[in-house]
Write a structure and sequence with these properties.
Helix content is 35%, strand content 14%. The protein is an alpha/beta fold. The chain folds into two domains: 154 residues, Rossmann fold; 149 residues, Aspartate/ornithine carbamoyltransferase (Rossmann fold). Helix 1 crosses helix 12, helix 2 crosses helix 12 and helix 6 crosses helix 12. The longest helix has 20 residues. It binds N-(3-carboxypropanoyl)-L-norvaline. N-(3-carboxypropanoyl)-L-norvaline binds next to helix 7.
């Protein structure tokens, strides 16, 4: 693997899931692999799980880790050909080039602006790093994808599934703010390669980008979608059309005990952070069926599997 920015960078995603599970059994089996190697994590946006799990993953492999909050650095320019006589002090061409002098792997987080669909879906920041860094680039969530989350989600489903091919439902839920589509986009593209029956449910008006939905069935009735489900994966996202908006929804899409009772004893999953009693009731997230903590725990082994695979190639 040469970079990790989407499922398309991974030749065998199932093999990577197995690698993460092997690392979970023996997290300290490869402490020499990263000796004298440096991972730089660059955050344009806040992080809790991603930062801690990726730092620890790198350390478990024996790497040096440095973290840069972009707010602490120069304001970067991404457009080519700009006359840089205004607010931006350094071009990404130099910034990514310089970081590559110090890093063996560069990992980057950036959120979308949610104002201009074309701009966000061009995934400018991640693409600029891919283009101008001279070392492998890892996505720590970009404007449109969160592949480390999806890999951890697949690992979790693999651990908890009771059937060879479980039914997995990705359900929209309400949220007070307009959120990115990245987690849901990625979940769809990874689950489309997993041995699961995947169903997408959301209110009318919250259709995801067709390039990510592919041929995943969409059921607009949440309760109908929940029938026979073994995993309820919940996430809010803002509308794609009109982009970044929050159209009104008639029914309450919160995940409640009553809705979970319609499933086949489904597990509840969410990437976190989650707004309790808006996205999911306390009763569901506190129940024995809630996988939010094991899921977050698996972020460590997902990151470790990815870094290991990249280190084996640098
Ligand atoms: C981010 C998102 O992409 O939806 C990160 C998820 C891993 N979530 C949020 O920004 C939630 C913020 C909030 O105010 O609840």
């Amino acid at each position: 693997m040469k970079q990790f920015t989407s499922v398309h960078d991974v030749s065998d995603p199932f093999q990577l899931v197995q690698e993460a599970l092997a690392l979970k059994a023996q997290p300290h089996a490869h402490t020499d692999l990263g000796r004298n190697k440096t991972v730089i994590l660059v955050f344009f946006n806040p992080s809790l799980r991603t930062r801690l799990s990726t730092e620890l993953a790198a350390k478990n492999l024996g790497c040096n880790v440095m973290t840069l909050n972009v707010a602490d650095g120069w304001k970067l320019e991404f457009a080519d050909g700009t006359v840089m006589n205004a607010g931006t002090a350094e071009h990404i061409r130099e910034a990514a080039g310089v970081m590559s002098q110090y890093a063996d792997i560069l990992a980057v987080r950036s959120f979308p602006g949610l104002e201009d669909k074309e701009k966000d879906y061009a995934d400018q920041i991640m693409r600029a790093f891919m283009e101008h860094a001279t070392v492998p680039v890892v996505s720590l969530e970009s404007a449109i994808r969160h592949p480390l989350q999806s890999l951890a989600d697949w690992v979790t489903i693999e651990e908890y599934k009771r059937r060879k091919r479980p039914k997995v439902v990705l359900s929209w839920a309400p949220h007070p703010r307009a959120l990115p589509q990245a987690v849901s986009n990625s979940f769809l593209e990874w689950m489309q390669q997993a041995p699961v029956d995947l169903v997408l449910t959301h209110p009318k008006g919250y259709e995801l980008d067709p390039s990510f939905v592919g041929d995943t069935p969409v059921i607009y009735d949440q309760e109908e979608a929940f029938a026979d489900a073994e995993f309820i994966y919940t996430k809010n996202w803002s509308a794609v059309y009109p982009y970044g908006q929050k159209p009104e929804v008639e029914k309450d899409w919160q995940i409640t005990e009553a809705k979970m009772a319609l499933t086949n004893k489904a597990f509840f999953m969410h990437c976190l952070p989650v707004r309790r009693n808006v996205v999911v009731s306390d009763g569901v997230i506190e129940s024995p069926k809630s996988l939010v903590l094991p899921q977050a725990g698996n972020r460590l082994y997902a990151a470790q599997a990815v870094l290991k695979s990249l280190l084996e190639n640098v």
